[in-house]
Predict the 3D structure of the following.
Amino acid sequence: KMTQQMRDLQLAQARKPPGPSSPNAAKRLYRNLSGKFRVNYTSFDEGSLVGRGEKEKLRKSYLLQSNAALFEAVELQDLDRVQELLKQYSPEELDLNTPNSEGLLPLDIAIMTNNAPIARALLQAGAKESPHFVSLESRSLHLSTLVREAEQRVNELTAQVVNEAPNTDCSNKEKQLKAWEWRYQLYKRMKAGFEHARVPDAPANVHLSVASSSSVQVTFGEPLSVNSAVVTKYKVEWSFFPTFSPLLGEAVIDKLKNLHFTIQGLVSGTAYYVQVSAYNMKGWGPPQASVPPFAIPSNWREYDGRAPRRRGQAEALDHLLGQVKTVHQHCICHEPCKNQPQSRKHSVSKSLKHLFHPGSKFLKTLKRGLYLTAIFYKDDNILVTHEDQIPVVEIDDTYSCLLMQDFLWFTKVSCMWDEILWLRQCVTVSQSSCSCILQTRFKMLLAISQMQGLLGIQDLGQVFFEPVKDKQGNILIVTLKEVKTNQTFESVRWVPICKLQSSRKSVSSPEEPTALDTLLISIQDKLAYHQRSSHALSPGLYLGYLKLCSAVDQIRVLVPEQLPNILCHVKIRSNPNISREEWEWLQKLVSVEEPVPAEPEAETSQNHLFQELQVAIKELMTLVNIPLQEAKDFRLYSQEVLDFGDQVSFLLLLPPSDDVCTAPGQNNPYTPRSGFLTLPLQIFELGEER
């Protein structure tokens, strides 16, 4: 069969340009071939193609050329071209795991020529080894056959070139001879690479941790030795016993983007021993036991049987809201509004296509008062009225109440954009009291309804964390919403932000800009804040720093500008779970009175957490500009671990009791460096919930 394959290859070689005689000549030929392979088939005149069958045939031909180009790139050890092809095509399009006429896959060539960078790139793309190599003997025999038949072909062509007179046919055979000489050398290198290879060493840094009450996670690295062949898969084994006899289970990992594995379905409170071994073309290497050698599935809540803090809270709040709605449903003040939702279907569009008609009541200039503005943006463009103005509506032109209280109430209303009509009906009941606060809040609800009606959309987005004010007595409450759809809208203008900023004619002086001018000047900062406040942390356990400062009417919390919905923090580790044993050790740690407690025993999860905490505390103190010697007076919050879903958890580091919250006029000797801001505590809580 192999001889027949080689004959087919000879015929194919006779029909195409002969191969190179040296690596440099090979690269020149490869560049020429690659140029042909990169033909853009969409440039052909599709009108001349007959039906879909022709198009599909052309596409398959193009992908076949791409597959050939990948083999050429691997054989010539062209890493850049390999990465380019892997990025341009999917593994299926490249036929990444379909053997060529020699029974080889791209990964086989890479590992047998010991080209680790190309092999790793192929492995991360999902490449496999050839299924024909079921044993070391079969691989060795296959390589010997390739070398022998290539040598035989070289000898035959050499004899023909020597014996024939110079002519065109002889010139072609000389080119074939050079190509076969180069291929003969390639097969010899592959055979030598296989013969000199040895089984891999044990994986490095095998670490075992508790992932939950029913699972453990093992992470590991590539073997440290660089002399063995490329590792193509790993095996994780687990058992009740340190001898691993009998085995409880095993798993083979051949997707090598992330070297970790989670063992699921384990019994809480039971010890499991884990080891990992590596595999290359010479076979499995020795196993490496994990550190610590075993783990017991558990969770910190098992320490005292504590239930999750938020269990059932969302359902309870929905139930309460439903009860409140039921009580107000038959109120007499709601009778005139029963038909309003029906008419609203005609006046409020579900999209933005009827935005900003000339008859709208958006304001162009501000007088003294309280206003609402809604900013919709997409990429670097912003949505404006037909007069190229950011949409603004009036809330109250005689506002004189407590701004912060009303503003914080408004931010809570922003969680219920769909319930504004119902809230208006509820506030109407108490309007006769003529309370300044109730009057203002009713006007806020009216302004929200007006904005929603004019825009034809209910969700106005997220409220910026502080109003925009000027010295003329104007106050702007700003909402921000990103429009991610690519659809076009009628009667709407998307204007580049830079153009809006440059074209606006300011009516104020640079020393005393109006609230609208201030908004336009700082709009990029506000959009950046909005985008960053929706970012999520990657899974893991974090160390957070709680620092508050108080003013006359509010408490503010220190947060990083890059992630304003989360406390200042550093990552401790990628595993978010804290086991029962780790939590028990932490309880003992915070209860001791000695300044330097004894370290836990080596090769335990507690010792690993101790080392991780030391590194995290140093990093966090540097981040918030606090001398490390001051950290001796700081405390770990030991009442609970703050869980944010199943993938993110926090331990809190607290300053001394007197320094947790800085009072007005109190000096803070350690001011954080740039990159931080302080948010009103209620705004931070809302952002955290989002």
Q: What stands out?
A: The first strand starts at residue 204 and ends at 212. Residues 56-196 form a domain with the Serine Threonine Protein Phosphatase 5, Tetratricopeptide repeat fold (CATH 1.25.40).
